[in-house]
Amino acid sequence: MTARQLTIRKENLPARCEICHQSDEFDPDTLECRRCSNLSLQSVDSGVKRTASHIDIEKALYDRRGPSTRVVMALFFAIIAFIPGICIGPVGPVLGILAAILGSRELNAIKKGHSSREGQALAKISISLGIGSSLFYIFLAMQFCSTN
Predict the structure, then answer these.
(1) pTM (predicted TM-score)
(2) For the CA atoms of 16, 21, 25, 28, what is the dihedral angle to 10 degrees?
(3) Dist. CA 116–CA 98, nearest whole Å
(4) What angle do CA 138, 139, 142 make, to 5 degrees?
(5) 26-27 and 32-33 as β-strands: parallel, antiparallel, unpaired?
(6) Whose CA is closest to 74, among 112, 109, 124, 116?
(7) CB atoms closer than 10 angstroms to residue 92
(8) Rounded Cα–Cα distance for residues 7 and 100 (Å)
(9) Nearest-CA neighbor of 100 among 140, 136, 53, 56?
């Protein structure tokens, strides 16, 4: 289905709270929940505790902090790429290339604002290690072939 085929027929106000998922204390006109309106949320930037609105709580729930899973996996593949190539030939370079691809995708996501900037250094490291491990195994293969 393309975007031109999608038709919104009707929009409704929420019938329940997005935080506690209950409707008994929720006012759909003001979008306020008496149960959740007393929740205090510590602001990450200032450290000051204050009563949070639904918007603040949703932002805290969906705010991306720390490195993403993609960059952690890229770094993991980059480090592991050096180990299997000694025992199993083609696995090392493949893991290295995969680490470089994941690292570059993470850098693109950071540039577009889809991912946290905290993973930028890890992404660069995983790209470097991934490319380095692939080149290392290519060099080893060339040395092995030249001696035989």
Answers:
(1) 0.54
(2) -20
(3) 21
(4) 85
(5) antiparallel
(6) 124
(7) 22
(8) 40
(9) 136
d(CA 81, CA 90): 10
In the chain, domain spans: 26-62, 69-147
Distance between CA atoms of residues 97 and 101, nearest Å: 6
The label of the residue with tokens 């001696």 reads 147
Q: Whose CA is closest to 55, among 72, 73, 32, 74?
A: 32
Report how far residue 85's alpha carbon sits from residue 90's, in angstroms, rounded to the nearest whole number.
6
Give 109's pLDDT tier (boundaries 50, 70, 90): confident
Amino acid sitting at position 85: G
Tokens 């006109």 -> residue: 29
* Per-residue pLDDT reduced to its tens digit, 122-143: 999 999 999 998 888 888 878 8
